[in-house]
């Protein structure tokens, strides 16, 4: 499939995990890419992997903090200056934060997680949707989480921010559908990325792999998801094939969030 021939896709958190997987998939299908991350080395790693599978890909790398509104405006401007438009936006960068009971969670930690996961997504929407409205087309995928549609525990900041991402998705989808722009969210369960590895190490730094095996037992499919499985979903949702999917939240979790 070449669903992204002549299309420009902007991805935040592109230096690792789900952002990298989505970048690889849309690059294989012909996309020009604007890749944003705080981690410059991660971006270089993603670029090298893309060039292995799509040697002709045009790639712009932008080191930026999505929690900084000015930096967000800047990455959107640079993308438009370089490629002239934005067809797809994967608004994905995020962190988990330290796990703790609500009373011990810490106000600074709460603010940090919310500023990246929620403010960062809001700023991205604010500047990208203005561009897409003027174009009269575009597709946005925000990364929420099962922690944005269910209670997980020990994750005040994450839960608040990811439920907020679901709210932003529904709100902006209702607003921008009339301009030919669709906005959706994905709600991944546990997908084996560096973030989840870090999360398991918070539980037991020595035996985190064993913790992981126990962790997936309640999942109907008894395994972690793979980043490329999320990449396939995001590519579909960003493509023209998914234009009429709007303001929707799509779980990708082996069915776990539907289990009683
Ligand atoms: P990851 O840690 O592998 O990748 C996240 C990337 O975001 C990293 O490259 C990191 O440098 C970047 N980033 C972090 N803070 C940033 C900031 N302030 N500005 C710019 N870039 C920043 O994690 P992942 O698993 O790929 O997570 C991607 C998204 O998916 C996150 O929003 C996460 O909450 C969400 N998610 C992941 C899972 C999972 O199981 N992996 C499940 C549900 C939701």
TrEMBL record:
Transmembrane segments: none annotated. Pfam families: adh_short_C2 (PF13561). The keyword Oxidoreductase applies. Keywords: Oxidoreductase. GO terms for molecular function: oxidoreductase activity. Signal peptide: none annotated. The keyword Oxidoreductase applies. One of its GO terms (biological process) is bile acid metabolic process. SUPFAM superfamilies: NAD(P)-binding Rossmann-fold domains (SSF51735). It comes from the Bacteria. Belongs to the short-chain dehydrogenases/reductases (SDR) family. This is SDR family oxidoreductase.
């Amino acid at each position: 499939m070449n669903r992204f021939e002549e299309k420009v896709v902007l991805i935040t958190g592109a230096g690792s995990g789900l952002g990298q997987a989505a970048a690889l998939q849309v690059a294989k299908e012909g996309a020009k890419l604007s890749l944003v991350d705080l981690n410059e080395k991660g971006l270089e790693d993603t670029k090298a992997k893309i060039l292995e599978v799509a040697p002709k890909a045009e790639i712009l790398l932008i080191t930026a903090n999505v929690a900084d509104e000015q930096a967000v405006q800047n990455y959107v401007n640079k993308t438009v200056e370089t490629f002239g438009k934005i067809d797809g936006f994967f608004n994905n960068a995020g962190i988990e934060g330290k796990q703790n009971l609500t009373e011990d969670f810490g106000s600074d930690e709460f603010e940090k997680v919310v500023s990246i996961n929620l403010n960062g997504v809001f700023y991205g929407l604010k500047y990208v949707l203005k561009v897409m409205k003027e174009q009269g087309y575009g597709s946005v995928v925000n990364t929420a989480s099962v922690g944005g549609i269910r209670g997980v525990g020990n994750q005040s900041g994450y839960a608040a921010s990811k439920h907020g991402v679901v709210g932003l998705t529904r709100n902006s989808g209702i607003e921008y559908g009339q301009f030919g722009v669709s906005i959706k969210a994905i709600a991944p369960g546990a997908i084996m990325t560096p973030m989840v590895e870090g999360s398991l190490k918070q539980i037991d730094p020595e035996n985190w792999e064993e913790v992981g095996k126990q962790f997936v037992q309640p999942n109907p499919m008894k395994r972690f998801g793979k980043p490329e499985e999320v990449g396939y979903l995001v590519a579909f949702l960003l493509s023209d094939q998914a234009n009429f999917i709007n303001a929707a939240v799509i779980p990708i979790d082996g069915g776990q969030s539907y289990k009683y």
